[in-house]
């Protein structure tokens, strides 16, 4: 695909609670409808995400979830819960008058999509996910305590916890970061934002030089990730356990062999216990967590193209 899919239109949808969601539509308005679910929670959509899709085949729906991207207000935590995000997806579908659609997403976006497809199985045609995050106690401990990724990335974890040295107590770690992200001193706020995001960056792309992440959305991303993590992702794990077996759409999950944000072993354990035969799971050799990794990007593009071909054959 040499060119990005063309923009059809963009809208801000009022979903209540003071939130207006940014929805941009691309590609062929008569093509296969596909909803892109970004990760984070809090990352928002970026233009590079469009490179996943062939605009001649898909009607691409790029939705910035509550508090993210171009949605308003940016970084808003009030009325921002998992159930709110799930209800928003249905509101968008109804507003577009789409009876059913495909889902594509990574990390927390894959988590959200998996729950949605289990809650509304008749609304999902097919789906491709990567870097699936399992929001269990194990998944959270792996990311933020001294019992998981910290053992593989000791130096990076020391930098992450230098501002909040309570590695044996995640709640205190989160409390300190919450205070730091909202500190009245702009330099202190900046220090906490960078420490939070660089820890995740060190796991997403291990071995790469850490960069100072400067954007208007940096603070909102850190705050939203902390908001969800400190609230145990608002019951997402329980819903995944209850609903995964009810998924009816063909589902492809790709997990990177070197994904240190969402390690494959946690994902595999979950799918062995709560998955179903309709879920096709594979580990991508030399794959990392995100699409900045060429290996993962290529595999995801291929899976999405395969999903489209399979739908054409029906």
Automatic annotation (TrEMBL):
The record's principal subcellular location, in a coarse class, is cytoplasm
Write down the Pfam families for this protein, in alphabetical order: Abhydrolase_1
Query: Per the database record, which ranges form the AB hydrolase-1 domain?
Result: 33-154
What catalytic activity does the UniProt entry give for this protein?
A: Release of N-terminal proline from a peptide
Which GO terms of the molecular function aspect are on file? hydrolase activity
Q: Does the keyword Nucleotide-binding apply?
A: no
What InterPro entries does the annotation carry?
A: AB_hydrolase_1, AB_hydrolase_fold, Peptidase_S33, Pro_iminopeptidase
Write the Enzyme Commission number(s) for this entry: 3.4.11.5
Q: Where in the cell is it found?
A: Cytoplasm
Keywords from UniProt, A to Z, are: Aminopeptidase, Cytoplasm, Hydrolase, Protease
Similarity annotation: Belongs to the peptidase S33 family.
Q: Any idea what this protein is called?
A: Proline iminopeptidase
To which species is this protein native?
Answer: Shewanella eurypsychrophilus
């Amino acid at each position: 695909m040499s060119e990005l899919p063309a923009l059809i239109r963009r809208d801000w949808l009022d979903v209540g609670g003071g939130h207006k969601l940014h929805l941009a539509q691309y590609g062929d308005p008569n093509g296969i409808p596909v909803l892109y679910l970004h990760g984070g929670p809090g990352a928002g959509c970026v233009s590079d995400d469009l490179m996943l899709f062939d605009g001649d085949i898909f009607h691409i729906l790029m939705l910035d979830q509550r508090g993210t991207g171009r949605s308003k207000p940016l970084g808003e935590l009030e009325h921002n819960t998992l159930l709110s995000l799930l209800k928003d997806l249905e509101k968008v579908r109804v507003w577009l008058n789409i009876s059913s659609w495909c889902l594509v997403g990574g990390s927390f976006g894959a988590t959200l999509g998996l729950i949605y497809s289990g809650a509304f199985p008749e609304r999902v045609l097919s789906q491709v996910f990567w870097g699936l995050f399992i929001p269990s106690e194990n998944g959270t401990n792996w990311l933020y305590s001294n019992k998981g990724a910290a053992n593989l990335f000791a130096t990076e974890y020391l930098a992450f916890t230098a501002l909040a040295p309570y590695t044996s107590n995640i709640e205190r770690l989160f409390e300190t970061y919450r205070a730091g992200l909202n500190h009245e001193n702009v330099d202190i706020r900046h220090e906490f934002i960078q420490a939070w995001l660089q820890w995740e960056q060190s796991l997403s792309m291990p071995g790469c030089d850490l960069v100072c992440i400067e954007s208007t959305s940096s603070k909102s991303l850190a705050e939203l990730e902390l908001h969800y993590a400190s609230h145990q992702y608002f019951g997402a794990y329980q819903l995944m356990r209850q609903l995964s077996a009810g998924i009816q759409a063909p589902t492809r999950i790709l997990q990177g062999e070197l994904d240190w944000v969402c390690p494959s072993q946690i994902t595999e354990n979950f799918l062995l216990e709560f998955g179903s035969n309709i879920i096709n799971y594979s580990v991508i050799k030399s794959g990392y967590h995100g699409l900045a990794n060429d290996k993962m990007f290529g595999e995801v593009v291929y899976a999405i193209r395969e999903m489209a071909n399979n739908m054409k054959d029906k």
